[in-house]
């Protein structure tokens, strides 16, 4: 009987402990990437061995230490790859290039600035993923993000394949390899597909409704819902960054959780089978992902 009572006692569940470890690992990777973005990649690589030492000597915090090492190391390698890329090297000499690229962001107008006695007019800024480059009678296939600054208000949309020429310059922006300054209008090689055109139209109509408010509050609405910051001025964006509120316009897991919960609840009212409910929710999430372009 005693054996039966002992066997009947269930061992404590390890699921909460596993969830805590996963949470610690995720938080550590995020903090490690944040440290790497705040400092140069060389300093981040110097910090990484500290995480390794903690992992080897402090078993109590081994998961957090290992995740810090992973997050810091991966993001540091990403930054080092951009800063030592082919385009970054060309940008050191302000080299003239011809790029073939795919547009990966909305076009955003910069704020006019006074420089000396001259007024620098507003320009258009957007990000592309360069796939081909020509310079000094050379050519190469690449896959690198580039910031484009142009005075032309070209009719291009996200997903378009374009050809554009200009001069590459060194940039402090960590998400791109270099900045392309151009005085020529981009040439559209291939337009985006029908689905991309439909999603672009939805974003443009929503942006137009928000623009009617003609205020920073109105410019904030598309950013919070769709991650569209094209209406925000550079001054307002800088203020958001300094106050630590720039995350409000970054589409995160919370947005997907809200959308998925709403769609799943509506699908339960319309469909009886769980499989159909899950397929409907998944389809809406895919469309939402394409719409917000996180």
Overview of the structural elements:
The chain is an alpha+beta fold and 294 residues long. 51% of the residues lie in helices and 20% in strands. The strands form two sheets. A five-stranded mixed barrel has the order 1-5-6-8-7.
The best one-word shape is: globular
Strand order of the largest sheet: 1-5-6-8-7
Number of helices: 10
Strand residue content: 15-25%
Please outline the major beta sheet: 5 strands, mixed, barrel
For the secondary structure, the number of strands is 9
The gist of it:
This protein is an alpha+beta fold and 294 residues long.
Describe the SSE topology:
Layout lengths: L1 H7 L6 H24 L2 H17 L4 H22 L2 H6 L4 E8 L4 E2 L3 E3 L2 E3 L3 E12 L2 E13 L10 E9 L8 E5 L4 E4 L3 H18 L4 H11 L7 H9 L10 H18 L3 H19 L2
Parallel strand pairs: 6-8
Antiparallel strand pairs: 1-5, 1-7, 2-5, 3-4, 5-6, 7-8, 7-9
């Amino acid at each position: 009987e005693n054996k039966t009572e002992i066997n009947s006692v269930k061992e404590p569940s390890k699921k909460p402990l596993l969830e805590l470890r996963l949470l610690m690992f995720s938080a550590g990777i995020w903090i490690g990437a944040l440290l790497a973005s705040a400092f140069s990649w060389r300093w981040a690589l110097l910090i990484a061995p500290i995480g390794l030492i903690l992992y080897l000597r402090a078993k109590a915090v081994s998961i957090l230490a290992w995740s810090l090492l992973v997050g810091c190391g991966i993001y540091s390698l990403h930054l080092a790859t951009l800063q030592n890329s082919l385009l970054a090297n060309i940008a050191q000499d302000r080299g003239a290039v011809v790029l073939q690229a795919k547009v990966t962001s909305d076009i955003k107008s910069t704020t006019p600035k006074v420089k000396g006695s001259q007024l620098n007019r507003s320009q258009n800024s957007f990000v592309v993923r360069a796939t081909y480059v020509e310079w000094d009678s050379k050519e190469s296939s690449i896959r690198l993000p580039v910031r484009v600054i142009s005075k032309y208000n070209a009719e291009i949309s996200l997903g378009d394949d374009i050809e554009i020429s200009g001069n590459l310059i060194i940039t402090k922006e960590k998400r791109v390899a270099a900045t392309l300054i151009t005085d020529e209008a981009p040439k559209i090689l291939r337009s985006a597909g029908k689905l991309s055109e439909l999603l672009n139209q939805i974003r443009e109509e929503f942006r137009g409704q928000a623009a009617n408010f003609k205020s920073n509050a109105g410019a904030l609405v598309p950013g919070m819902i769709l991650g569209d910051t094209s209406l925000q001025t550079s001054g307002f964006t800088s203020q958001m960054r300094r106050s630590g509120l720039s995350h409000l316009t970054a589409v995160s897991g919370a947005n997907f959780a809200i959308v998925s919960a709403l769609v799943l609840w509506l699908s339960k009212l319309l469909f009886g089978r769980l499989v159909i409910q899950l397929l409907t929710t998944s389809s809406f999430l895919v469309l939402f992902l394409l719409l917000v372009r996180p």
